[in-house]
Design a protein that fits this description.
Oligomer: heterodimer
Number of domains of chain B: 1
Radius of gyration of chain B: 12 Å
Number of strands of chain B: 5
CATH architecture of chain A: 2-Layer Sandwich
Shape of chain A: globular
Structural class of chain A: alpha+beta
CATH class of chain B: Alpha Beta
Number of strands of chain A: 7
Radius of gyration of chain A: 15 Å
Distance between the termini of chain A: 20 Å
Number of helices of chain B: 3
CATH architecture of chain B: 2-Layer Sandwich
Strand order of the largest sheet of chain A: 1-2-3-7-6
Order of helices and strands of chain B: EEHEHEHE
Strand content of chain B: 25-35%
Strand content of chain A: 25-35%
Distance between the termini of chain B: 29 Å
Order of helices and strands of chain A: EHHEEHEEHEE
């Protein structure tokens, strides 16, 4: 049992496939150092990140994505760690996450696109995409519930 | 809970879809199929009290259903969303445009 106010951290290893969103949701549901509303924010925003990684950042090295939730001080951090040769382009100027986009309706597929990005921006205080030589990372920072 | 359960029944001359479980990128196709089918046929309400996650894919289905409802002239409502479903709706930045009601009687 973790006490609020102290640092707490959990990590899960996910396969880079669509079904992993279920395992990720279960991981978030078990974070006993967060309030229910804090868990909801992490679950909603984190699922969008994971879904986009699986769809747009493949191939991912060894098909492994590490997700780490940390409560520290007044912040909650959700980090995704992976290795993807296409991530730099995915996160770069032309990538879907860098555009200041509004949701748009795609009539050909009868689907709205861009909603997930808006959700992440509104749920998290900060979203950082950090391509690296040895490890690519995405960090979402959330405010703790008062 | 990892499975999405959807039951459909007639109530007060409309189709009521009761949703239980997560609507995410992995499960939303069943939700999409049943919602689009319902709104094409009749006034439709979706009870979201027991929804445990609502992704952008699920929100997109709801937004398309709202447009289909205008086209077909059928009513459409979201009934009593769970706290996480309400948070997902509000996180779009235009949550006030979603037809959310507390009970079916308000439709």
């Amino acid at each position: 049992m973790c006490r609020r106010g102290r640092r707490a951290e959990r990590t899960v290893v996910l396969e880079a496939r669509a079904a992993s969103v279920l395992r990720f949701e279960d991981f978030i549901d078990r974070l006993d150092f967060l309030t229910p509303r804090e868990r909801y924010c992490l679950k909603l925003a984190g699922s969008e990140i994971l879904d986009n990684l699986v769809k747009h950042a493949s191939p991912i090295y060894r098909s492994r994505i590490y997700a780490r939730a940390t409560r520290r001080g007044a912040s909650i951090l959700l980090g995704f760690f992976f290795r993807s040769p296409s991530f730099a382009a995915f996160a770069g100027d032309g990538g879907p996450w860098s555009a200041v986009a509004k949701p748009l309706f795609d009539p050909a597929h009868r689907r709205w696109r861009g909603i997930g990005l808006v959700m992440c921006r509104n749920l998290a205080r900060r979203v950082d995409f950090r391509p690296g030589e040895r490890m690519d990372r995405i960090f979402l920072e959330f405010e703790r519930e008062k | 809970m990892t499975q999405l359960d959807i039951t459909v029944h007639n109530e007060h001359h409309r189709l009521l879809l009761s949703i239980s479980g997560p609507i995410n990128s992995y499960t939303f196709t069943d939700f999409q199929e049943k919602v689009y089918k319902a709104i094409a046929q009749a006034d439709t309400a979706i009870d979201m009290e027991h929804v445990t996650a609502l992704s952008s894919a699920g929100l997109g289905v709801i937004m398309t259903a709202m447009e289909d409802a205008e086209t077909t002239g059928h009513g459409f409502a979201i009934v009593n969303p769970s706290e996480i479903a309400r948070l997902a709706i509000d996180s779009t930045g235009f949550g006030d445009r979603f037809p959310v009601v507390k009970t079916l009687k308000q439709v």
